[in-house]
């Protein structure tokens, strides 16, 4: 559920940043498996007409981008292919200390 919220907030931030952006230009799909693994994608069309997409997975290893033309590589040059490592939040670190 947290991953869904992060994705939704990210898309909302994109919309807020571009007032001429239409919600009709945003699409999202996701599937939640029996093991609580979430796979999905979201896409949007920029005001310039460029379509961007992100395919992702969120599982026991965290949230990872599997494929994207919006985030093609990290600052270290690591391609977004699901093997780049997971996102670890500070909330998880705080929970471990209790």
Shape: globular
Biggest β-sheet: strands ordered side by side in the sheet: 1-2-3-4
**Can you count the beta strands?**
4
Uncertain spans = none
Structure characterization notes:
- This protein has 98 residues and is an alpha+beta fold.
- The protein contains two helices and four strands; from the N terminus they run αββββα.
- Strands 1-2-3-4 form a four-stranded antiparallel β-sheet, covered by helices on one side.
- The chain is globular and about 35 Å long.
- The two termini are 22 Å apart.
Provide a compact summary of the structure.
By secondary structure, the protein is of the alpha+beta class. It is built from two helices and four strands, in the order H-E-E-E-E-H.
